[in-house]
Amino acid sequence: MRELLDKYGVVVVEGMNDVLRLEELHIAATALCSNKPTDAQVQTLAKFARQSANNKVTLFPDCDEPGEAGFKDLLWKLAEQQVEVRLGWSSTMFDGRFRGMQPEEPTDEEWATLV
Question: What percent of the chain has pLDDT over 90?
Fold first, then answer.
């Protein structure tokens, strides 16, 4: 767990199925259970990033319009908390290869490309 937190920081996804899929890949993740973060979630993520993950967070939103819109807000709010925020993927990164996908959907080989 320590090695993963050092490497990726706190990995944030939208839903529990995404968390379960990442667990299969031995990547610890947490879910917002929404595409829009609450202020309390932002504060908790920032606190956890500072205390346990070298001040890093990696975001894996659903690669659709609502998912990305909600996580843009999360990215901004975490950056305002002076947390190092990284985007793991988007609908346009990787030549659009993952457009329309959710983090639970990529194959093991596709995840190897992402991480």
Answer: 79
The answer, yes or no, to whether residue 112 has pLDDT greater than 90, is: no
The residues, any chain, with a CB within 8 Å of residue 112's CB and separated by 6 or more, are: none
Compute the distance between CA of residue 13 and CA of residue 70 in angstroms, rounded to an integer. 11
- Confidence (pLDDT) at 115: 77
Facing residues of 8 across strands? none
How much is the pTM? Answer: 0.91
What is 2-114's CATH number, 3.30.300.180, 3.40.1360.10, 1.20.1250.20, 3.40.630.30?
3.40.1360.10
- What pLDDT digit, counting tens, does each position of 23-72 carry? 998 888 999 999 999 999 999 999 999 998 899 999 999 999 999 999 99
